Amino acid sequence: MNDIDTARNKVINREKAKPGLRGKINANCAYCIYDPFGSKGTWRQQVEECTSYDCPLYEVRPVSETYNALPLKGDLSNALPE
Question: CA-CA distance, 26 to 15, in Å (whole number)?
């Protein structure tokens, strides 16, 4: 196992050990997108910037409260006439 896998697995194992679904969702998102050496930011910052809009977990991915206040990318619900 290389250093990237070791660092990534540390985050994944920590998150999936948390009780409930939140830890499992966090672990899945980290597994999918987190690159501890090739990308900028922490695993959460990288997940916040996720562009996999078709992912079934996209709307429940871990994001900060500040980021959560922004409209969803691809969310056109406010653009539709009533």
Answer: 6
Would you say residue 81 lies in a domain?
no
Q: What is the gyration radius of the CA atoms in the chain, in angstroms?
A: 14
Question: What pLDDT, in 10s, does the model give residues 14-48?
Answer: 999 999 999 999 999 999 999 988 888 999 999 99
Query: Domain range holding 35?
Result: 3-68
The predicted pLDDT at position 80 comes to 45
- Mean pLDDT in the chain? 84
In a domain, 19, yes or no: yes
Number of domains in the chain: 1
- Confirm whether 82 is domain-assigned: no
